[in-house]
Each structure stands twice: as structure tokens, then as C-alpha cells.
Amino acid sequence: MGTVTAILVAGGRGVRLGEDAPKPLIALNSRPLFSYSLQTLERSPVIDSIILVCGADWLDYARNQASQWAPEKLIDVTSGGIERPDSVKAGLSRLPKDCNQIAIHDAARPFVKISMISDAVAALDQAHGSVPGLPLADTLRRNEANFAAGTADRNRYVLTQTPQCFHRDVLEKAFQRADQDGFSGTDDASYVERLPGSRIAIVPGDPDNFKITTPHDLERARMMVEASASTDFRIGEGFDAHRLVAGCPLILGGVEIPNPVGLLGHSDADVLCHGIGDALLGSVGFGDLGKHFPDHDPAYKGISSLLLLGKIADLLSAAGYWISNVDATLILESPKIAPHREKMIANIAHALNIAADRVSVKATTTEGMGFEGRGEGVSCRAVVGVKKTG
Ligand code: MG
Fold it and tell me: How many angstroms separate the alpha carbon of residue 346 from the centre of ligand 1?
């Protein structure tokens, strides 16, 4: 039996973040960014040892400080190269003799979960490598000089995250081959894919396991860290109803659903967004939707309610609140919501700047009872959880 070594790649410069420190050293709640994934790797039951590959300019700091987050498993700290593959190779050169499987993780993904590491390593039983893959919520389109040049079937693609896991002999062979051919890839799996017959398993990715690249990502990460430490948790409840009439579009969660009747209202009458927006405002005692977006104000006539949700998310964020989850129920007799649910969730998550797995949209009928049952209107009930940060 061999062992599993994690290589934590922490060589990024963070130029796109506009911060002074190298990216892995940026402070998240008074701790360096790299320490979060380092600690998760330490706690993972499937990882036996850890090698940290850091920037040459903070090698001394890492050697002095890193073991406090991985006291049992950190076996080596080394400096990487300019490019990511050079850093991975620096890690590979330090592997212990008995290591036969490798998990490579980007330190710029601080919120990797222990269960994902377990899934990715377990998948090596059936494959040469494994990667976490996230389904695409948006439409994938080819761009040629800013003109659309075809739409891909997004169901055939995933966004690839880390940890990426490999059998040691396979990864070493893949890097040797790349050296011979002068190949350079953007992730480790792209090296292994070039070996004939190689099989790379895809395990479920996690929206919270995002890579911190932009200042916006960093702000989201800071809010997540502060919120997870906060005990100030609040719940909001919201309700809305709109009348169904001919000649109006039926827009729910920003999705226009073909239907003989649609919802009447001053804005786009998106009752789902209104219920959620009301719940969000209620959770922090900011009044209701009508107070912030009066239905006599021409500025809001016909406006997409997703924009209103975005404004509400900004209000909460400015007041130091982070949205933990949204659970909404649509009450209507028809049409069926299921075919549109995924897109609604993606729209709402995007508007609120939270991961899609924090948004739930359900639907029910009332078995013919009440105004919803008679098809006179659609209503929505929503509950949200928010946490105070900072
Ligand atoms: Mg409304």
C-alpha cells in the first residue's frame, strides 16, 4: 500500500487582485489565504502528507509559519517556479518514496471541502486521474472578434476545479512527455489527457470552491470567512402574489415561460423574485419591496426584477450581511416549473452573488383551491437566512 501526498500550489502573484501581498498571503480574517486549504488538507482522512509549494520571496515565512496549520502532515515547504507547472514539478521532486497517489490543489481555492478531497482520491480506484467538475449555468458561446460563432451544448462541458488527483507514475510520465514535446497546459489533467488511453474521472465540483482571481472574488471570500465565524444569524420571510392575465409575459426567476397568460404588474411582475426580495429585506428589518421600489416610480416600470434582487443584495452587503440561503415556493396551477427550475436558480444566484447550491426554488399546486388553484394568479413564499459579518 502506498500513501497519498497533497501538493498545495501557492505560487500565485495576485497581480489581478490589486493587493500588495502575494495572493497566497492575502489576509482573510487575519489568516493568510493559503492556510485555509492547508488546514483542510491536514484534516482530510485520505491525505497522508502535504508538500507546500510557495513563492521564493516568502519561503522563509512559509517554513516558519506553515506547520501551525498542518502540524501532523506537512513534510516539506519548497519554492516554485514562475509558471504553475513549474511549481507542480517542484512539488513532485519532493515526494516521499512510498507516495503512489497525488492530490494537487490550488491555494487560491480556500473553501475546498474534506468530502470533495475524499471523492477525488476515491475516484482513482477506477481511473488514472480525477478532477472536480462543475456544470455550467450560463450558455457557452464561441466568440470570434466579438461576434457569436456558435453555441455549444453546455451539458457536455464542466468547469474544472481542484484538487486534481493522479496516480504518481501516470503524472510523472505525463510531465516527462510534456517536457519532450514542449507542451504547457493550464491544469494538471491536461497533461495526463495527452497520454494515450488515459481516463480522468469527473467528481462533483462545488460552487463554493471557487478560485480567487478578481477583487470581487476576494470580497466574496472575505464575507464567507467572516460569516462562518459569525453567530449573528437572521431569518427573513417574504410573500407576494400577482394576477394572471392575457397579454402579459410570464416571467419567473428571470425566465420567460411560454404560457397563454402572464403576470400583471408595474415591473416585470416576477413574483418569485419579489417574494425572495421581500424576505431578504425583512431579514435585516429594511422594510419591504414597495418601500424601496415604489410601484408608482417610473424608474421601475417594466424593470427586470433580477436587477431589483441585485440592488437588494448590495444593500445587505453594504450593511455587512451575507446571504446564507434562499428557499422559495411558487404556488400555481400551471405551467410546470421543473423544466425551468435550474435556469431560475442560476439567475437568482447570479443576481445575489451567491453559489447556486444556496438557492432553492420549489413549486406546488393547491389542488384547485383558492385563487392560485382557479388560475387567477400566482403567489410565492420565500424564506432566507443571512449572517452578519465583521
Ligand atoms: Mg410583486
Answer: 20
Ligand 1 center to 239 CA (angstroms): 9
Distance of CA 215 from the midpoint of ligand 1 (Å): 34
* Virtual torsion, Cα 275, 280, 284, 290, nearest 10 deg: -50
**Where does the pLDDT of residue 227 fall: very low under 50, low under 70, confident under 90, or very high at 90 and above?**
confident
d(CA 37, CA 211): 12
CA of 268 to the centre of ligand 1 (A): 9
Distance of CA 75 to the CA centre of its chain: 30
CA-CA-CA-CA torsion for 185, 188, 193, 195, nearest 10 degrees? 100
Lowest mean pLDDT among 14-18, 66-70, 87-91, 143-147: 14-18
Better-scored residue on pLDDT, 84 or 165: 165
Rounded to the nearest whole angstrom, what is the distance from the C-alpha of residue 329 to the centroid of ligand 1? 15
CA–CA separation, 42 and 44 (whole Å): 6
Q: Which of 102, 75, 80 is nearest to 4 (CA)?
A: 102
How far apart CA 280 and CA 193 sit, in angstroms, is 45
Return the DSSP state at 213. Answer: -
Eight-state DSSP code of residue 367:
T
Interatomic CA distance for residues 159 and 149, integer angstroms: 21
**pLDDT tens per residue across span 268-306:** 999 999 999 999 999 999 999 989 998 888 888 878 999
Q: How far apart are CA 41 and CA 69, in angstroms?
A: 9
How far, in Å, is the centroid of ligand 1 from the Cα of 328?
14
Count of alpha carbons within 13 Å of 377, Cβ hemisphere only? Answer: 14
Cα 176-181-187 angle, rounded to 5 deg: 65
Ligand 1 centroid, distance to 129 Cα (angstroms): 50
At residue 73, the 3 state secondary structure works out as coil
Residue 382 CA to ligand 1 center (angstroms) comes to 13
Distance 305 CA to ligand 1 centre (A): 9
Measured in Å, residue 325 CA sits from the centre of ligand 1 at: 21
Task: Reply yes or no: is the peptide bond before residue 335 cis, omega within 30 of 0.
Answer: yes
Widest distance between CA atoms in the chain: 73
Residue 127 identity: A
- Please give the distance, rounded to the nearest whole angstrom, from the Cα atom of residue 265 to the centre of ligand 1: 7
227, three cell numbers: 460569516
Distance in Å, CA 58 to ligand 1 centroid: 54
